[in-house]
Amino acid sequence: MKTANKTVTATMLVKDALQKAKHFAEYNIFTFLNEEGALKKAAEIDARIARGEEVGKLAGVPYALKDNFLSPEGQTTASAHILEGYVSPVTATVVEKLESEGAIMIGRTNLDAFAHGSSTENSYFGPTHNAHDFERVAGGSSGGSAVAVALDIVEFATGTDTGGSIRQPASFNGVYGLKPTYGANSRYGVVAMASSLDCIGFSTKTPDDMDLLMSITAGQDPKDMTTLPDFYNIAAPPTRTVTRIGVIKDFDNDAVDAEIREALSRKCELLKSKGYEIVELDMPALKYALAAYYIIQPAEVASNLSRYDGVRYGFRSERAQDLEGLYNNTRGEGFMPENKRRIMIGNFVLSSGFYDAYFLKAAKARTLIVQEYAEAFQKCDFILTPVSPNPAFKLGEKVNDPVAMYLEDLMSVSLNLAGVPGLAVPAGKTRDGRSLGLQLVGPRRSDKSLIEFAKELQDENDL
Amino acid sequence: MKYIPTIGIECHVQLKTKTKLFSEVDNDARGKEPNSCVSPVDYALPGMLPRLNGEAIKMAILAGRAMNCEINAYSRFDRKHYFYPDSPKGYQITQFYHPIIGAGYVELPSGTKVRIEHAHLEGDAGKLTHFDTYSLVDLNRVDTPLIEIVSMPDIHSARDAHDYCRELWRLMRFAGVTYGDLYNGNMRFDINTSLAPEGSDKLGTRTEVKNLNSFRSVERAVEYEIKRQTRLLDAGDKVVQQTLGWSDATGETSPQRSKEVAADYRYMPEPDLPPIHLSDEFIAAESAKLPLMPADYRTKFGEIIPHDTLEILLDYPELMTKLSELSADKKAIKLIANLFTSVLLAEEKSAEYLNDLPSGKDLAELAKMNAGGELSSTATKEVFLHLFDPQMRGRGAGQIAKELGLIQENDLGALEAIVDAVLAKPETAKAQADFRNGEEKVLGFLVGQVMKESKGKANPSAVQKILREKLK
Questions:
Q1: Of the candidates A438, B61, B198, B229, which lies 20 to 30 Å from B155 by C-alpha distance?
Q2: pLDDT at residue number B253
Q3: What is the pLDDT of residues B436-455, one digit of tens each?
Q4: Element (H, E) at A43
């Protein structure tokens, strides 16, 4: 990570990043550019450097913040109409940690509204374009963040991953994307999507950058009771002596694009040549992952979105005549169609008479998936899989076909259900020049060794 | 036809924790501006997460033990969804599937046992005030910790319903988990009433009267429902299962607005709060902190304090604690108990006084002076009241009595001199002669004269003794 010093100042770094952000404006990466605030912070850091003060591990490093992280700088919209103009009085724990090390937020990045989507097309502010093919999607929901890193505007960007929202756009744009172990990073101050699945992570250019960021942000937060005690920075982190890499049999099938399968085979050959053993895994419960995910996730989404009612903050419909009208019109006008779809599915699976048949069943499937991962990690150290069944698709291609869009999450959601970490790594390009990515999966709390191991997979074709 | 009423009661108790159930703001909103005790978490801003207040868990354990309930080693929170402006999150955090307090029972003074089905922790809702064209929302009460106590349908009369609620109120106050201010809604009762023909083994259709906040209104509402349902059944009509409201003014129940009636709450496990695991050691250690309960005090003081006095005092845990500080001195306990009921509770400012009771040491000294004849019963009451005077209380009962000139003259030499002076007065000559002639009743006149001479400080029984001696 290029930090500021006396010759390359924070102001220079920030100006450079802002200039690039403007240069790529047509990609629709940012929902807000923090010009004034970023330059002011940069000047402060430069002054401290001039005085010879300690300025932190990320001194003057410009970064992009997914627009569902709350901070008082600019509006936090989650790319949703219902939060347009919302200025947060509180700051997310992860933002606080990054900024206390001197990082400077230069802008907020676009996402599918409330992180509901796999293409960033569900944004109230319009879609973000793929970094390497303007006609194609950025992936999602952290599309803006992945593209900001891929186009070298910033060295890192924050993301949230509920079912693949960091990993899939990372792979669509040829960068690294980490979904850490559930509870590794605090969710405090991040607009909730589905609380039991939401993970806070990053898009970066290198595994080393990912390691540095995790060392700064990981750890228990009294404001988020689901955070784990810091397992990342302890003297002897639970590193693994990696010798066996698992490959899941069921994933190597027709649902997966041929070029992605080829990329997987190539990496397996690379690993074999380095002396690793490739282990074939039978994980039958994973075929229930997508169905279980699209029950649990909408249920929690419906619940978490209940607070957006127009009573206390955010958008409020002018058309309301009474209380029920206030709710109906505010939510009707304020939410995107995909938000509403998930609210309806979620309320359906939780309604009395259906809870046992849907939500409880899904919860049981989830338990099976947790067990299946635990058993798999008895047989191998890490698992290598595709991130998504397809490389970046065309803008508009799937946006009106929710099921096709949901199928994009086929390989990513089981990690969120199991709470295990996954790292999307670049794996070369398709013949027509699209980025390919693969996903390394580890047991809970193996994040550090997972990031370490990613270096073993690097070769000259990746980026 | 004769019907047997069956009543089950749900009771909400606001816990007096320092901070709210899921945030660090002040939980005591008494006398504060609306919306001044609200954190970003209570206000349900985006991205905010609940933080469980450990003090509420400890209080739940005490409340549970006060009702002889099992404490569950595993419990968990759930979300109960509904849209209303008193619920900023759009759901209430409660314990639907795995409550912290399991089965137990409450024994009424009459000896009736009412079983507790379970009790659970949850956050309270805010308060709405409705006007013609708008409503105001006050979120101070949002996520004040509540425990909801659910009884089994073991109650069969309005009187027992009254007594059960009152006993719960006592138990919760003795356990120290609530202010128990009924007027301000610290405890609220929902009563479920049904009638079944005598001899039937099936329960009838029940109605629920919600949000009662006094024992008297509980009793009246049950009486009313029994009468109303009896009338319906006798006429061959059906009781409709519904939620009713109670009006103290009209003394009637009436159906609630449909908005307030239960919808589909879409319960879901609360994903932001990990399950609560309590070790046996923790439960045992916290249970051991349960103070003496009314039943314990009945055993302890039943032989010493008259029944009626004791039952009055059992409404005031702070007074029972004071009595316990008086060691094992039975006379002192009896005297102070009597002063508590006849003097303290009769005072206009008694509520204020209860908040700031004199020390056990002062009360013990007062009792000792009374027993030793230093204070007359009138003087004892006088000094007792002055123990509540913030200006005087620090000086102790002895000093206060001295300053007020209330100490009785017990010095026999000094008393003799006064008696002699009185007997030397010509106006007492006739009385002296009459007494010598066997007229006992004139002794009172003579004692009175001596008391007057001593300005009320003489100990009347000592004076009597000296007079008898002198007039032999």
A1: B61
A2: 94
A3: 888 888 888 888 888 888 87
A4: helix A35-50
Amino acid in the structure at residue A457: L
Neighbours of B42 (CB within 10 A): 26
ipTM above 0.85, yes or no: yes
Say yes or no: B136 contacts chain A, CB-CB below 8 A: no
Catalytic annotation present for A165: yes
A273 touches chain B (CB under 8 A): no
Catalytic position from the list A71, A142, A145, A165: A165
CB spacing of A352 vs B264 below 8 angstroms: yes
In-domain check, residue A26: yes
Per the structure, the count of domains in chain A is: 1
CATH number, domain containing residue B454:
1.10.10.410
Q: How far apart are CA B408 and CA B450, in angstroms?
A: 13
Instruction: Give the amino acid at B390.
Output: P
Q: What is the pLDDT of residue A22?
A: 98
Q: What is the pLDDT of residue B419?
A: 86
* B453 Cβ contact list (under 8 Å, min separation 6): B418, B421, B422
Q: Same structural domain for residues B222 and B330?
A: no
**SS3 state at B372:** coil
Q: What is the pLDDT of residue A355?
A: 94
Within-domain flag for B369? yes
Q: Report the amino acid identity of residue B196.
A: A
Please report the pLDDT score of residue B36 as a whole number.
Answer: 97
pLDDT of residue A270: 93
Residues of chain A where predicted confidence (pLDDT) is lower than 70: 235-240, 251-253, 461-463
Q: Does A188 touch chain B (CB under 8 A)?
A: yes
pLDDT digits (tens, 9 = 90+) for A125-146: 999 999 999 999 999 999 999 9
A68, A188, A355 member nearest B49 (Cβ): A188
Residue B416 has pLDDT above 90, yes or no: no
B274 to chain A: nearest residue by CA?
Answer: A226
- Contact between A225 and B81 using a beta-carbon 8 Å cutoff: no
pLDDT beyond 80 at B180? yes
**Residues B117, B47 within the same domain:** yes
Q: Is A191 on the interface with B (CB under 8 A)?
A: yes
- Counting one residue from A and one from B, how many pairs have CB atoms under 8 Å apart? 101
- pLDDT grade, residue B260 (50/70/90)? very low
Q: Do B45 and A89 touch (CB under 8 A)?
A: yes
Helix or strand or coil: residue A384?
A: strand
Best residue of A71, A350, A358 to probe chain B, by most B CBs closer than 10 Å: A350
Any idea what the CATH number is for the domain that residue A114 is in? Answer: 3.90.1300.10
Pair B76, B99 in one domain: yes
What single DSSP character describes residue B23?
Answer: S
The total domain count for chain B is: 3
Instruction: Give the mean pLDDT of B232-247.
Output: 93
Residues A190-206 pLDDT 10s:
999 999 999 999 999 99
Clarify whether residues B435 and B344 are in a common domain: no
- What is the CA B48 to chain-centroid distance, rounded? 37
- Return residues 357-386 of A near B (CB < 8 Å): 359, 363
Q: Is A364 a catalytic residue?
A: no
Domain limits at A114? 10-217
Contact A31, A71 (CB under 8 A): no
How far apart, in Å, are the Cα atoms of A385 and each of A167, A250, A260, A264, B296? 12, 10, 10, 7, 67
What would the mean pLDDT of B222-239 be, rounded to a whole number? 96
Provide the domain limits for residue B170.
3-280
Q: Please report whether residue A29 resides in a domain.
A: yes
**DSSP calls for B281-341:** HHHHHHHTT----HHHHHHHHTTTS-HHHHHHHTT-HHHHHHHHTTTT-HHHHHHHHHHII
In a domain, B105, yes or no: yes
Q: What length does chain B have?
A: 472
What CA–CA distance (Å, rounded) separates A418 from A376? 12
Tokens at residue B335, please? 């005297």
CB-closest option in B43, B47, B50 to A189: B47
